[in-house]
Amino acid sequence: MPSEALDAPMRSRVRRVASDRPWVWLTLGWRDMMAHRAISLSLGAALTLFGWVLSWLLFEAGTQWAILPATAGFFILAPLLAVPLYEVSRRSELGQATTLQDAMQAFRRPGPQIAMMGALLLLIHLFWIRVAGLLFALFFGGVALPSLAQLPFAMLQSEMLVPFLVVGTGFGFLLAAGSFALAAVSLPMLVDRDISWLEAATISIQAVMENRQAMALWAGLIVLFTGLALVPFFLGLVVVLPLIGHATWHAYRDLAVR
């Protein structure tokens, strides 16, 4: 169980948890997903469909290079997309029945604050897409773009692949780490409390900083499960998104002091 709130005034809004606590969050998230299978899996399926449509639009626009960074950017926007799942877990905790309409109402109740946090995450995502485009042009600008199926093989044969991956991964890691710190508990907190997005983001950053080991494990598990889910052309997101979304609610309940 999480320990008592920290005594220092600047740290009184977060708790410290055991380094292996994320496994408990996943267990509780699985329980919530199984208890609300219809809603949870429907939301996961909707996101999978969105991934298909986005990939098709990028391909039709002749910007197939953007499919990979856009997919990677999913890690930045996922906390926002999971807002209805936080509401499902919140209502379940209170013993309330939940419909899909109830879950979607989570966007409206603290609407302006969630919108502000969403806009911030969206700006980070768009910035990442822009950086990825500039890096691709820098390293592969003189190469004619192959088809989507041939693109990975063409990149593997290029001598620029290693520097491209090193630089791109570095930028991506910094943006993802910053986004994770901002959104780790802030969005479920906005669903649960009457609080400003800035205060929620501040508490989220504090929670991450005070629980570095646990949150590093949690971030690693999110990347692992989501990465595996994306491999079969987003199909795994049908299950993984609800699982991570519900688990994130329980992470918030553990980490943030009421």
Radius of gyration: 19 Å
Number of strands: 0
| Backbone structural class | mainly alpha
Uncertain runs: 1-11
Number of helices: 13
Number of domains: 1
Based on Cα principal axes, name the global outline: globular
N- to C-terminal separation? 16 Å
Task: Please describe what this structure looks like.
The structure is a single chain. With 258 residues, the chain is mainly α. Helices cover 72% and strands 0% of the residues. It contains 13 helices and no strands. It has helices at residues 21-35, 37-60, 67-72, 74-81, 83-93, 100-104, 111-140, 151-156, 161-183, 186-192, 197-210, 212-230, 237-255. Helix 4 runs parallel beside helix 9 (161-183) and helix 5 (83-93) packs across helix 13.
Provide a quick synopsis of the model.
The protein is an all-alpha fold.
Helix-strand layout with pairing:
Layout: H1 21-35, H2 37-60, H3 67-72, H4 74-81, H5 83-93, H6 100-104, H7 111-140, H8 151-156, H9 161-183, H10 186-192, H11 197-210, H12 212-230, H13 237-255
Helix pairs in contact: 1-2, 1-13, 2-13, 4-7, 4-9, 5-10, 5-13, 7-9, 10-11, 11-12, 12-13
Transmembrane segments: 38-59, 65-86, 114-140, 160-185, 216-244
InterPro entries: DUF2189
Keywords: Membrane, Transmembrane, Transmembrane helix
